[in-house]
């Protein structure tokens, strides 16, 4: 099943990079489920919420998608990022864990569904400029399209896209530097 | 924010474009070479007898060492900045330059009388070597560290050190065209120290500057 998953996910990611939004949404949902399973199996004692790792990984995948070589398999790339973000999450909380770096079993992770609680990403969102925060919230939490968001704030679609892009990059950067609150 | 909501935002940003990392690395290498060349030509420049020296084995061997170092470090840093890329072969490749230097040192010890070993090693230029290899390499190192930020190195300290080795190999290639000390004994000592300084600086840069 892993080989078939791999081929399908690589195909979706290539389509996404070529500009196919539907393929990208499909790719991200599948990756979220796989990374959730991975994070839940790796986080055996508390302190780190697996869903925070899922969200950080998705953001990193998004802002670093130009680092994926389109002729290489996509899952090793995804899991390398997920592992890095997981270790980062533990490090921020001041504990050390052992990760089996070549754990091939994670490619067979069963998709899992999300649990809801207070998220690190909300704290990161709070650090954005007001304009970026309202655009990111409108597109994500309120589920508006780019056009609807532009109409809501009375700005151009280009301005919405720029704010969204910069806002997401800023959140990813805050995650990378571990600057988003929770002590 | 729920993960499904985050995915909506990421999806809406799907059309934003960034240059593929592998292409960006080639641009960065070109820019770094240009900066190193400009600094080199504006400061010390090539030695006056460059054309004559180019016919001697010892002079040419310096370029073999430094270019092999730069090429192997370039291959490794491109792999290190890509999550999940295998680095094994590129790591092994990093041994090429040290092995070549070691072989040249052994040959030199056979060819040069023992009484001259010290003179050959100390040379006449070691302070200039130790100052100008790092100086020429500083601009390239900054570019390579910036590229690591653009990439996604899962081992940032190691990647930073390799950025220093790459900058060092590049800088030493230019410096070698200036330096009159062609003995492998000199190269193995002072070039190594100067390049190691850049690698150390790169590792620090990787630790504190390369976050993602």
TrEMBL record, chain A:
GO BP terms, alphabetized: DNA-templated transcription initiation
Domain RNA polymerase sigma-70 region: 31-96
Record flagged with keyword Iron-sulfur: no
UniProt keyword annotations, A-Z: DNA-binding, Sigma factor, Transcription, Transcription regulation
InterPro entries attached to this UniProt entry: RNA_pol_sigma-70-like, RNA_pol_sigma-70_dom, RNA_pol_sigma70_r2, RNA_pol_sigma70_r4_t2, RNA_pol_sigma_r2, RNA_pol_sigma_r3/r4-like, WH-like_DNA-bd_sf
Domain RNA polymerase sigma factor 70 region 4 type: 120-170
Keyword Transcription regulation included in the entry's annotation: yes
NCBIfam families the record matches: PRK12512.1 (NF009165), sigma70-ECF (TIGR02937)
Family: Belongs to the sigma-70 factor family. ECF subfamily.
Protein name: Sigma-70 family RNA polymerase sigma factor
Automatic annotation (TrEMBL), chain B:
Domain of life assignment: Bacteria
InterPro entries: NrsF (IPR009495)
Lineage summary: Bacteria, Pseudomonadati, Pseudomonadota, Alphaproteobacteria, Hyphomicrobiales
Keyword annotations: Membrane, Transmembrane, Transmembrane helix
Bilayer-crossing regions: 24-44, 59-80, 92-112, 124-145, 157-177, 189-210
A matching Pfam family: NrsF
Protein name: DUF1109 family protein
